[in-house]
Amino acid sequence: MDLIDSKYISLVSARLQKFKRVKSDLYNFRCPLCGDSQRNKNKARGYLYAVKSNTNFKCHNCGASMSLNNLLKKLDTSLHGRYTMEKYKNGLTGKNFVADEPEFVFEKPKFTQTIVLPLCSEVEVARTYLQQRKIDPTQFYFAENFAEFVRSFPDVVHTHMGEESRIIIPLYYQKNLVGFQGRSLGPNKVKYITVMLQDEAPKIYGFDTIDTKLPVYVVEGPFDSTFIDNSVALCGSDGNLHCLEGSDLVLVYDNEPRNREIVSRISRCISAGKSVVIWPRDIVEKDINDMILAGINVKSVIESNTHSGLEAKVKFTEWKKV
Fold first, then answer.
1. What is the Cα–Cα distance from 93 to 11, expressed in whole angstroms?
2. Are residues 195 and 212 both part of a single domain?
3. DSSP state, 305?
4. Is 162 within the bounds of a domain?
5. 49 FRET partner, CA 20 to 30 A, in 108, 137, 216, 257?
6. What's the pLDDT tens digit per position in 129-169?
């Protein structure tokens, strides 16, 4: 790695989160293009490394791959101009300097909106609330004043939002923040408030963290989804699963056999040929979080009680109580 590349890596490093020098020709940091992991702020999967006389960038999260030159062009046009001029003055052009090499094709995130709030793990009241429910507090944010937080998004048409504190559940789609839910910590007439930043985006929590090549479990709440691998949660009765068409879906509704709405939804899913979980009679807890707190191996129960077709109809008839 030449001295000019090292110099400009040092200059741009202040803009790269979790930046560190691994060795003389290898640097690691959070990818500035995709933002890296939204759940784990300590994950850093962006790398700068030497390839012959050039320096390349690679992100092992979004797949972005390009030269240092093109990375600087995306991050800071002024710094990029100085870099190319210095390379030119030192004769490091032509075949020894890749100015605009082909890049791997990937859908670039837009990042028009971000959440600037502390994680629940950093706020005692929120951390305690989630830990008591065995929920990872690093996956969610905390807003001391929910109405004020909503007003920080100028394009959102907000009505009468409460001034109370809420846990913020981010909704991402194709690496973009498309909305969020505010979840009350205590008794409240409105437990969840959903705010969409992009009206056409799906109201789904966890979409950007799943592998659609594997079975995808669809549960009722974001908190419940944190206990089930490769799962998403519908955030609102008008949520839809169009973005998951073609995936092997397993619908996991709450264990409420007397709830007419849930019974109706399960019935429609079975009629549509979908796989559903029919909870066994010896489980009395209503949702996944309650089952976890009761010491139940939820993963095992789900795997052994997933049904479809005629078998699902028989199990469903035995389960429902309306």
1. 21
2. no
3. T
4. yes
5. 108
6. 999 999 999 999 999 999 999 988 877 766 667 889 999 99
- For the segment 185-204, the average pLDDT, to the nearest whole number, is 88
Q: Which residues pair with 183 in a beta bridge?
A: 167, 192
Order of all β-strands in the sheet with 192-196? 141-143, 166-173, 176-184, 192-196
Q: What is the DSSP-derived secondary structure letter of residue 309?
A: H
Q: How far apart are CA 195 and CA 129, in angstroms?
A: 23
Range of the domain at 268: 203-322
Burial profile 220-255: b = 16 or more Cβ within 10 angstroms, e = fewer: bbbbbbbbbebbbbbbeeebebeebeebebbbbbbb
pLDDT tops 90 at residue 125: yes
Based on the domain organization, do 207 and 302 belong to the same domain?
yes
- Higher-scoring residue by pLDDT: 322, 239: 322
Domain stop point among 96, 119, 144: 96
Residue 105 within any structural domain of the chain: no
Given 147, 166, 201, which residue is the final one in a domain? 201
Structural tokens at position 14? 């202040």
Which has the higher per-residue pLDDT, 84 or 223? 223
In a domain, 101, yes or no: no
**pLDDT on residue 315:** 96
Please tell me the distance from the alpha carbon of residue 18 to that of residue 55, in angstroms, as a whole number: 19
Q: Are residues 257 and 167 in the same domain?
A: no
